[in-house]
Design a protein that fits this description.
The chain is an all-alpha fold. It has one domain. The protein is about 55% helix and about 0% strand. A two-stranded antiparallel ribbon has the order 1-2. The longest helix is centred in the middle third of the chain and has 25 residues. The chain starts with a helix and ends in a 9-residue tail after the last helix. It comes from Streptosporangium sandarakinum. Keywords: Membrane, Transmembrane, Transmembrane helix. This is Succinate dehydrogenase.
Length: about 260
Amino acid sequence: MTQTTAESTARRQRAQIKERTLRTDQWWRYPLVTFIIFMAFLIYATWAIFDKSFFVSPYHAPFASPCLAQATCPEEARLFGFAPFGDWYTLPPGLLILGLPAGFRFTCYYYRKAYYRGFWLSPPACAVGEPHRRYTGESRFPLILQNIHRYFFYAAIVIGLILAIDAVKALIGKPDGLGTWILIINAVFINLYTLSCHSCRHITAGRLNHFSRHPVRYRAWGFVSKLNAKHQELALISMFTVMGADLYVRLVAKGIINFPFA
């Protein structure tokens, strides 16, 4: 056998390693922490959707905003007084808009990486074998639905603007309230996370061949690109701010938090 043939045969053969991984570091910490954090968020979100204490003037819990059900939404909680779902709708109002921000996060590039590793162990970490026998990626149902991420981005922009409106209403109604500034901080991080999205970066100037001919879009692309570099951090921070703001409003509405600057 010539040297060239031997080298070609060696390249076609894979190393036979019985161990799942040769890594000696604590690679399992990332998927474990991810699983715990995401599971806690999902449990809280499920509870919040069915909790009725989502509004206390001028504070509006983010998980129930916008409130579009006439039967279950106080008049002050309605967006510009608009409630397209009449008295026939008696389910929790949060169910009407839950799919928009949830769909945006579930199809987000960072969240895909996180829950693929933390929940599906596909793979649990770099250079660690996954327990699944087959790998089809995102080419089949249901993961092929990840491709509609861009359309959830458009919806997330609207939700972000509504949360910003809620923060402004709180600022006008109770400028010295702690809840006002909690809602403002949440609105800022939610919108920064939305703008840091990879789809936003592509939409801004992803198809341009000559940046010099589109200076405004180029500057916008540069701004979004800087946010995109912090996409993971903004995704996690905004998850905590929206959950914290939502919980704070509900605790105030329930009377659990009751002090002059609430």
